[in-house]
Design goal:
By secondary structure, this protein is mainly alpha-helical. It is built from 18 helices and 2 strands.
């Protein structure tokens, strides 16, 4: 935990800290802390009554993870998080060097951060009766790649690009070259959580190298994750996520590092914006070309095409925020996101550990008052029949998750006012 000397967003804008990065991080963390504002759950309730509602179909798609191939807004949360790690690394280690840290001290710090991120990631997902030894969540994935990312810091741009492309090409070759038969679409593979119905719906046009829980990454995890002490052997990840994802997601972080070093450079703002947008368009186009050529956009496997596609979108978002906030200096709307962006670890941990308790506490204290005032319980999870009278029940999840998220935001605001910022 550290304390800074200024809590004014404008002060951070003129310091080495990049304000648009804090805002970007804050926007992503608000989406997570508010659990997508409860929109996916609300969409499910509406679609149960009106299955053909195009509006709620779009909302449900955008605020849930794609089952396998494709991309939604919710799928882009983790790539944004990892991309921003690369951008922030370009700034943080320059500051460490300026205060006198040697290369070896910074290398040791990067290694320590890698270990702490992995440990924290495992701790936050271990909600059962034993430690959940898993390396698939966002913090452990960042931790696995962070030291390697540091080793690429301030290396020549051609070398960084070559390393990134080599990583993606190596991942593609490894998966394609692995002798896997894939999933038999007619019967599925229930022993690894893939039903025939699911396989026929989502794997029909997917090359066998990228089938769920029947690929190289799955084979590696069957060995790697069973080295850890377990009451039951690891057999498969229900979502199809793999530990090996960190290799191609390192390329996503590297794209962020390249963007961060560009923004720190002495190039003109016009040139910076042009390069960021060009990188973004190139990433999206190359990702789609890869998808068309047999390397599908699968976030759960972080396929090379997904790394390029999602990284490209992150470049476009960063360019937009940089142009609006740091070039045009339109900052009046940024404060709520800066509050969260400067305490992203704190709000992430609260969301992982305290969400159920916070919801139960709000339910206990607010329901009697709301019932008396409106005749409707805010935390009523029962289904609805039809009609305008059920509007509150259908949209209850939106209010519930927004209230829980607001509690977390207020904690971050309290920490911000007292200049308390959690750091690893």
């Amino acid at each position: 935990m550290t304390r800074t000397t200024s809590a004014d967003p404008d002060a951070h804008a003129i310091s080495p800290r990049l304000l648009c990065l804090d805002v970007y991080r804050g926007m992503i963390m608000v989406a997570l802390a508010f659990n997508g504002f409860g929109l996916a759950e609300a969409a499910g309730k509406h679609l149960a009554l009106t299955p053909n509602s195009r509006f709620w179909q779009i909302v449900q798609f955008q605020f849930t993870h794609t089952e396998w191939v494709g991309a939604s807004f919710w799928d882009l949360i983790q790539p944004s998080f990892m991309f921003m790690v690369g951008v922030s690394l370009a700034y943080s280690y320059v500051q460490r060097r300026a205060r006198g840290d040697s290369w070896w001290q910074m290398f040791a710090h990067a290694m320590k951060r890698s270990v702490l991120l992995c440990v924290l990631g495992i701790f936050l997902i271990s909600n059962g009766n034993e430690t959940e030894w898993s390396l698939m969540n966002v913090l452990t994935q960042i931790g696995l790649g962070y030291t390697f990312l540091f080793l690429l810091w301030q290396r020549p741009l051609p070398r960084q690009i070559l390393v990134g492309l080599t990583l993606l090409a190596g991942v593609w070759l490894a998966y394609v070259g692995y002798p896997a038969k894939g999933i038999d679409l007619s019967i599925g593979a229930p022993d690894v959580g893939v039903t025939a119905e699911w396989a026929q719906q989502h794997l029909t046009d997917v090359p066998t190298a990228w089938h769920k829980n029947a690929n190289l990454g799955h084979a590696v995890d069957r060995i790697l994750l069973n080295w850890a002490p377990r009451s039951q052997a690891f057999t498969f990840n229900p979502g199809g996520y793999q530990s090996l994802n960190f290799l191609s997601s390192l390329a996503t972080m590297l794209m962020g590092l390249i963007c961060g070093e560009l923004l720190r450079s002495n190039s003109s703002t016009t040139r910076k914006l042009a390069i960021l947008l060009a990188m973004g368009v190139a990433g999206v186009v190359c990702g789609q070309i890869g998808d068309a050529c047999g390397c599908p956009l699968v976030k759960r496997l972080w396929t090379p095409s997904w790394a390029l596609y999602s990284g490209g979108i992150c470049c476009v978002v960063l360019a937009t925020l940089f142009g609006v906030i740091d070039v045009l200096r339109l900052r009046g709307w940024t404060f709520p996101f800066v509050v969260v962006g400067m305490n992203s670890i704190a709000i992430y941990a609260m969301g992982m550990l305290l969400r159920p308790w916070t919801a139960r506490t709000l339910q206990k204290h607010l329901n009697p008052w709301l019932t008396t005032l409106t005749g409707t319980k805010l935390f009523n999870l029962e289904g609805a029949s039809s009609g305008w009278a059920n509007w509150g029940i259908l949209n209850e999840s939106i209010f519930r998750h927004c209230l829980v998220g607001m509690v977390f935001w207020l904690v971050c605001w309290w920490m911000f006012r007292r200049k308390i910022f959690l750091r690893i």
